[in-house]
C-alpha cells in the first residue's frame, strides 16, 4: 500500500480526520493548496478554537447575536460566545500538526483500493471522503448531480467595516423570500453574506442591492457555494463520509464547521483503531454510522425550524424569535446546541497527546511527489 489512509478534501473535515491519525501514513488530497479555498464566513463557537488550541487563527470573539426582522431588532446574549477566525491560518495550523503528505490534485474516484486523481493513482487501506457536497470519493447517493435538492446556497463579500456581534437579517418581503443575510465582523473587516434555503444561486444582485441600500457599500469580490441541509448515509461502501460530503452542515443555522471537525475526528479515531488491529473495517464503519445517526434528532429539529422559518407568516416568526429571546428559554436551547457537537470532544485525548509527542514527522505536512 502507498498509504494507510487517503483523505479526499483538506478543509475542516479532512484536516480534523488527519489530526486523529498522526503517526500513520496519511495522504491528504485537495485540488487547492491548503487554506486557500474559503467558502464560509468562518464563524463558530469560541469553544472550538479553545479545544483545538488554534488561538493564532482567532480574529474576533462575539458575545452576542443580533437578529433583525421587519418589526424589531433582538440582541441575544450568548451563554457560549461565538467567534470569527481566519480560514488560511486555521487550516495551515491544523495541517502542520498532522505530518501528513499533501497532494494538490483533483480526486476523480475510487477503484477498489485505489484513489484515482488528476495526478496519478494512490493505494491505501482506508478512505475518508471530506471533499464537500460533491463527495468526490463516494458520489453514490450524493447530491452531485442534483445540487438544488437538500442544499442551500450562500454568497459572501468581505469589506472594511468594523462591527460587534454576529448579525442576521430575516426580511422576506424586502430582501430574499426564502433566505437570510448576515454580517460577521472579523477585526477591521466584516463578511457580508446572503443565503437562499431553496438553493437559489443568482444572489449577486440581492447582495449588491442590500449592501448599497443599508450600508452604502459596493461588494468587493464574491465567494461561497452550496451547503447541504439533509443528512446522507455516513458511509458509502468502504468510505467514511465527513462534513458536507455527508450532509453534516446543520439546517437553519448553516453551521457546518463544528460538525465537520467533530465527525472528521470521530472517523479518524475509528480508522486509527482499524489500523492498530483493534477493529475490523466493517465494524468501524458501522460504529461511525451509529455515532452520526445518534445526532439525527438535532438535524430533524433544526430542519423543522428551517421549514417553519420560510413558510410561516413573518409575524409568527417574530413571535418565535421573541420566545427564544427569553433567558429561561435561550439558556437550555444554547446548552443543547453546544452539547450536539460538544467542542470538548475536539481536544486531543491523553493517548493522542502522547502520540504527538512521539511523532517526529509531525512538524509540517509534506508535499507528496
Ligand atoms: C457562504 C457560506 C457561509 C458559511 N458560513 C459558515 C459559518 O460561518 N460557520 C459555519 O460553521 N459554517 C458555515 N458555512 C458552512 C461551512 O462552510 C461548511 O459546512 C464546511 O466548510 C464544511 O466543511 P468540509 O470540510 O466538509 O467541506 P469544505 O470546507 O467544503 O471542504 C471541501 C474540500 O474538498 C476539496 N475538494 C472538493 N472537491 C474535490 C475534488 N474532486 N478533488 C480534490 N479536492 C476536492 C475542496 O477544495 C475543499 O478544500 C458556510 C457556507 C457557505 C457557502
Can you describe this structure in just a few lines?
The protein is of the alpha/beta class.
Describe the protein in words.
By secondary structure, the chain is of the alpha/beta class. The chain has one domain: FAD/NAD(P)-binding domain, CATH 3.50.50.60. The chain has 10 helices and 17 strands. The chain has helices at residues 12-19, 46-52, 87-96, 204-215, 257-275, 281-293, 296-311, 314-325, 327-340, 350-358; strands at residues 3-8, 26-30, 43-45, 58-69, 72-85, 101-104, 107-111, 114-117, 120-129, 151-160, 166-169, 179-186, 189-196, 223-228, 235-236, 239-241, 366-367. The strands form 2 sheets. Strands 1, 2, 6, 7, 8, 9, 15, 16 and 17 form a 9-stranded mixed sheet that branches. α1 (12-19) runs parallel beside α5 (257-275) and α5 runs antiparallel to α6 (281-293). The longest helix has 19 residues, at 257-275. The chain is globular. The chain starts with a strand and ends with a strand. The model has no long low-confidence stretch (mean pLDDT 94). The structure holds flavin-adenine dinucleotide. Flavin-adenine dinucleotide (FAD) binds at residues 8-14, 29-32, 37, 39-44, 106-107, 130-132, 134, 136, 154, 156, 193, 224-225, 227, 243-245, 249, 254-258, 260.
